[in-house]
Amino acid sequence: MRLRPIVSAFAALALAAGLAACSGDAPDPTASTDATTVVDVCATPSGSDSDAVKVTGDLGTAPTVEFTAGIDPSETQRTVVIEGDGAELTAGGSAKVAYAIYNGTSGDIIEAYGYDEGQDQAVFAADVSQLLPGLAKAIGCLNEGTRVVAVIPAAEAFGEEGNADINVAGTDSIVAVIDIQSVVPTKADGVDQPATAGLPTVELADDGTPTVTIPEGDAPTELELGVLKKGSGEVVPEGATVTVQYQGVLWSTGEVFDQSWGRGPTSFSLDGVVPGFAQAIQGQTVGSQVIAVIPPALGYGDTAQSAIPAGSTLVFVVDILAIG
């Protein structure tokens, strides 16, 4: 049995609708959806509340955390417990983490995750569009190898509604200890592979953004895949949660209908995307870049989806950055 964190309780659950298997409007790829332009996740101050939380233990091991229940900060505060010197987690970027999260009002632990052998790795994004604002502000612009403690007011945690599933009321604060284990790359770093004949061609900008050129001729009627870069990481299992960069293009016009480029890497479960996309990713290795031509039967079929006309063949270029 694979263990999974309850990280979904902390995420914004804002998966790209262009990938979702259910109906919905795909986001406009030309619109600015990067919430980090509004919320500075790097400027979080330390304060008396975060300084008062006592955290002991080594990085990578479950921490011992002591604080007085009823903590009620007016803003998110963070205090670095162990300072790392690895790569910086930039605003909008993602990192593999271990964490211990408490209800700051009751003092009860909500979950400790990532410290036991055999557990999946959790991925947190320094992006308030993908993670609770207080958690995004806890980790922004810190370095690999850092352990940080943050105290988060209800307004930047679960808000007035709270979260009954984990016994958090609408007025409850959160205390989080987070170990930043490794920063997730923003683009595939695998070895370049020969192009597959008949598939669209891909050119990459310096930052990794792809430009796809559709070949002449009819669209394939079955799923076609090509590996553009071969990564050396672990193999993506069926139904995994993955962190990726992606671009979706219509075969019929060559137009981009959705992409993460410009917003930053995104995480989602392969159980929640169109079948052709899941089939293209599972079995590949982390660090790889793949191109998939998805026929309507494995995409949206005869149902239109915002910028995707009914009966469309879809082309995706996907950089597989992490599992978790």
Automatic annotation (TrEMBL):
Organism: Amnibacterium flavum
Signal as UniProt keyword: yes
Keyword field contains Ribosomal protein: no
Reaction it catalyzes: [protein]-peptidylproline (omega=180) = [protein]-peptidylproline (omega=0)
Top enzyme category: isomerase
Protein name per Swiss-Prot or TrEMBL: peptidylprolyl isomerase
GO molecular function: peptidyl-prolyl cis-trans isomerase activity
Pfam families the record matches: FKBP_C
Signal peptide: 1-20
Family to which the UniProt record says this protein belongs: Belongs to the FKBP-type PPIase family.
EC number, as in UniProt: 5.2.1.8
Key words of the record: Isomerase, Rotamase, Signal
InterPro entries with a match to the protein in the record: PPIase_dom_sf, PPIase_FKBP_dom
Domain PPIase FKBP-type, residue spans: 95-184, 239-324
